[in-house]
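hiii so my PI (J.) wants the whole complex modelled not just the main chain, which honestly fair. so below is everything: two entries, each one labled with what it is. i double checked the lines twice but i was tired so who knows lol
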Amino acid sequence: GAVVSQHPSWVICKSGTSVKIECRSLDFQATTMFWYRQFPKQSLMLMATSNEGSKATYEQGVEKDKFLINHASLTLSTLTVTSAHPEDSSFYICSASGQAEQYFGPGTRLTVT
Amino acid sequence: GEDVEQSLFLSVREGDSSVINCTYTDSSSTYLYWYKQEPGAGLQLLTYIFSNMDMKQDQRLTVLLNKKDKHLSLRIADTQTGDSAIYFCAESIDSSASKIIFGSGTRLSIRP
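here's the output for the full assembly
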């Protein structure tokens, strides 16, 4: 199946700093990518939908100025958590839309100290 | 609104069959999915079924869909220790699968 990678796989940062997470579709072009957040023992919550060359669409309750999404090419979308706080600590998972299914990345664990 | 519900835990004996159940609310769902998540890892698509199908079988996995009752199930035959994981039911109401709604996940544990 199609492969989606994320980088980094885990990151620890200090409160107040910004962290960028990359999501790449390795063997196909994805016009649409998605960013999810998963808190421990909970389900995935969609944060935003990222379309190549246009602004991301954020779900209700997700601050677009805090979670900056850039989808500059058909194979790369980035999520930047700005001014991170401990409550932003979570598992962030991206996916890329293929034909009739989404391919998920392995996730990035963010810990804000 | 859209909602997908699952029981949180299931424990089965190794070698038995596991049946994980899921209910959803949106009758316009076009695709229904089962994903597997192992600890600390991303999601692995196990199988999916189109809403116009009743059943799909793939090796040890059998998916049953009761569209009238909006009920989806995943049966894992001959459950092994490697099947221990969280299983997420999910639905897509868009024909291009652009937005997926996930259930809360069922944690499957295997007893020796």
